[in-house]
Structure formats: structure tokens, C-alpha cells
Specification:
The protein is an alpha+beta fold and about 300 residues long. The chain has two domains: about 100 residues, Orthogonal Bundle (434 Repressor (Amino-terminal Domain)), CATH 1.10.260; about 180 residues, Beta-Lactamase, CATH 3.30.450.180. The protein contains 15 helices and five strands.
Length: about 300
């Protein structure tokens, strides 16, 4: 069957009307990355006019009608059950993070559009940062706003405390600060994963006005962000490794752990460590010795919004 006939040929076009745009684009992107062979479907004669799976093929794999799946992908006021969403997730081979994102998009919780309460870093967490003198540590908040940093993190990345509050954001830093592209040895991979993390947050907080402002600014100012944002990828950061090229101490290979302090699920404590005895550990010690600024007292730190 070719795409010129059948349900898929009629429904692939002309759906730019009303509906859940984020859900539509996410499902389109996930089925576009799969081939029928990967899905275990037999080859079909005729040319394919869409990349990846057709809607009718996703419906077949998920065990739902084509009409139902089309309405789901369009986000047309359909109340999909957990069983249906699970079947679609299995059909598209979504990982756990993508599955959670699908549920968030298909069942959005619309809160009144009003400012969110300020995020405040506990004094004890500030004191913890100040005691970590040999590893860079940061506290990120909503939208990856930089809420707090220790001395070594400011030496590794940039002095976020010296920036206007609006610019204390890790995504803005990565895309709009030229020094970030020099610092990250694999800037593209780091930037793409950061966009995917922001996309995950956006699926749960579509009405965050500060998020809309951030996405709009970055989409306007940076073509890489605009392209990767359109990819619809999502990522939950837990741990990993990154390589840096610091202008003062040279190359560093650091592992990171992303921890969530109690009391605010949208704060993340990021810790960067080097293997003991390695050249990276030596470089961190050199960097710590170079950065001689005194830490600001906790009482002088201001809450982020």
C-alpha cells in the first residue's frame, strides 16, 4: 500500500489545525525515527511518502483503530487511557523518560497562568557548597536556572553570581556565551542533551511564562537551539561524563552526578568529580588554587524566581 491511498494517505496532510501541538510533534518525531523493519512489520510495496512508520502502522502495532490513533496524535480532546498510552509507547519503543513525557503531554495539567513561587536554596545547602573546595558544584532550578554555585564551579564555567539574574541560566550560558563553546570539548553533544532536558521540563510545565520567554529568545538567537528543540528529544539527567578544555588548566575529564535535594523536586545539585590521581584531578586542584575569591555569606544570596 502506498501513502497515496488508505487512512494514512488521507490523514498525513492537513492537520495543522487546533489540538495539542506538542503531543502531535512528539509522536510524529518518534514514529519518524522507526522503520517498518525495526518494528517487525513486513515490507509493503510502493513508495513511502513519509519517513519512518505510518500512522496506520503505529495503530496496528498498538492495537487501536487508525481513527483513534489519528485523533490521539492530533491531540483532539481524546482522553486516552493508561493502557492505550502504554501500547503506543511500546509500539514506538519509547524509553522510560519518553514514556513519562508522552503521559505528560497526553494528560496535561493546566494551571492558572501566574508566576511560580521563588525557588530558595536552603542555608545548609549553601554551606555544603562552600565546603566542597575540590569539586565544582552547582544548584540548578526550574528551566536550569543557576540558583547557586561554589567557588570552583565559577572558576570552571563562569561567574554566574556576577551576571544579571535573568542571565543566570545554564541553557543561556551554553548557547549565548561564546566561551562555553570553547570550554566544552564536545559542545554539540552537551548542548543537545541540555535542550532535551529542557524539553522534558517543558512537557510538565507548558504554562511556565519564564520558560516561554527562554525558548523564544534562544530560538530567535541560535539556529542550533532552534533545530535541536524541533527534534523533540527528551532526557532525564542523572549522571555521566564530560570533557572540558579550560583556558587556564587545559583538558579535564569529569564525571557528574545530578542529585535532588529534599523539599524541592525542581532543584538539582550537580557535582563534578575527577578520578583520584588523574591529570584532571591535578587540574582541578590548580584551578581551585587560582580562584581566590571569597565566598559570599549565605545571607547575601538572593532567591531565584
Amino acid at each position: 500500500m502506498s501513502d497515496a491511498s488508505g487512512p494514512e494517505g488521507n490523514t498525513e496532510r492537513g492537520d495543522a489545525g487546533r489540538g495539542n501541538t506538542e503531543l502531535r510533534e512528539f509522536l510524529r518525531s518518534r514514529r519518524a525515527r522507526m522503520t517498518p523493519e525495526e518494528a517487525g512489520l513486513p515490507p509493503q510495496p510502493g513508495s513511502r511518502r513519509v519517513p519512518g512508520l505510518r500512522r496506520e502502522e503505529v495503530a496496528q502495532l498498538a492495537g487501536v483503530s487508525v481513527d483513534y490513533y489519528v485523533r490521539l496524535e492530533r491531540g483532539r480532546d481524546i482522553n486516552a487511557s493508561e493502557n492505550v498510552l502504554d501500547a503506543v509507547a511500546r509500539a514506538l519503543r519509547l524509553d522510560d523518560t519518553e514514556r513519562g513525557h508522552l503521559f505528560a503531554l497526553a494528560r496535561p495539567t493546566r494551571a492558572p497562568r501566574r508566576p511560580m513561587p521563588p525557588q530558595r536554596v536552603r542555608p545548609g545547602l549553601y554551606r555544603l557548597l562552600d565546603t566542597l573546595t575540590e569539586i565544582p558544584a552547582v544548584v540548578l532550578g526550574r528551566r536550569m536556572d543557576v540558583l547557586a554555585t561554589n567557588r570552583l564551579a565559577r572558576a570552571l564555567f563562569t561567574d554566574f553570581d556576577a551576571l544579571p539574574h535573568r542571565e543566570r541560566n545554564m541553557v543561556r550560558y551554553l548557547f549565548l556565551d561564546a566561551s562555553a563553546r570553547e570550554l566544552y570539548a564536545d559542545w554539540a553533544a552537551s548542548a543537545r542533551s541540555t535542550v532535551a532536558s529542557l524539553r522534558l521540563y517543558a512537557g510538565r510545565h507548558p504554562d511556565d511564562p519564564h520558560l516561554a520567554e527562554l525558548i523564544g529568545e534562544l530560538s530567535h538567537r541560535d539556529p542550533d537551539f532552534r533545530r535541536w528543540w524541533a527534534d523533540q528529544d527528551v532526557l532525564r539527567r542523572t549522571h555521566g561524563s564530560k570533557r572540558y578544555r579550560h583556558p587556564l588548566v587545559g583538558e579535564l575529564a569529569l564525571d557528574y552526578e545530578a542529585l535532588t535535594p529534599d523539599g524541592d523536586p525542581y532543584q538539582t545539585l550537580g557535582l563534578h568529580t575527577a578520578e583520584p590521581g588523574s591529570s584532571s584531578a591535578h587540574a582541578l586542584r590548580l584551578l581551585a588554587g587560582w580562584n581566590g575569591e571569597p565566598p559570599a555569606p549565605p545571607g547575601e544570596r538572593q532567591a531565584r524566581t
